[in-house]
Amino acid sequence: MVTLNLYHDRDDWPQRRAFIVEELRKAKPGLIALQEVLQEVLQAPGLRNQAVELAEALGHRYVFVSQDAQRLPRRHGNAILSRH
After folding, report:
1. Cα separations in angstroms, 5 against 2, 32, 38, 68
2. Percent of the chain predicted with pLDDT > 90
3. 3-state percent helix, strand, coil for the chain, nearest multiple of 5
4. Alpha-carbon distances of 67 from 3, 4, 5, 19, 32, rounded to whole Å
5. Chain mean position to CA 44
6. Residue 7: phi, psi to the nearest 5?
7. Alpha-carbon gap, residue 24 to 60, rounded angstroms
8. Of 1, 44, 80, 82, which is most buried by a Cβ count within 10 Å?
9. What is the pTM of this model?
10. What does the pLDDT look like over 12-44, one tens digit per residue?
11. What is the pLDDT of residues 36-49, one digit of tens each?
12. Which residues contact 45 (CB under 8 A, 6 or more apart)?
């Protein structure tokens, strides 16, 4: 099991995403808990739900939960990814 705070889209997310995927592939965790996950952002085209991006890159299933209202342009939440 791995837990990771994504720090949403701060500090060059594309570069951090590539590093995170590489390290998680090496570690091969069965479960990954993510905090500060950012869902689609209306002001930033191309930024998808980070949990979806990571799950697809790793071949995992995911569940994303946010307490933010769906109408908000930025929604933060937590996610669990599983390869099982």
Report:
1. 10, 11, 11, 18
2. 62
3. 30, 30, 40
4. 20, 19, 17, 28, 20
5. 16
6. 60, 35
7. 11
8. 80
9. 0.86
10. 888 999 999 999 999 999 999 999 998 876 655
11. 998 876 655 666 78
12. none
Give the tokens for residue 50: 């980070």
- Domain edges within the chain: 2-82
Q: Are 16 and 32 in contact (CB under 8 A)?
A: no
CA of residue 48 relative to chain centroid, distance: 9
Task: Please state, for a pLDDT cut of 70, what percent of the chain lies above it.
Answer: 92
Instruction: Answer yes or no: are the C-beta atoms of 65 and 79 closer than 8 Å.
Output: yes
Domain 2-82 part of CATH 1.10.287: no
Tokens of 21: 């995927």
CA pair distance 12, 3, nearest whole angstrom: 20
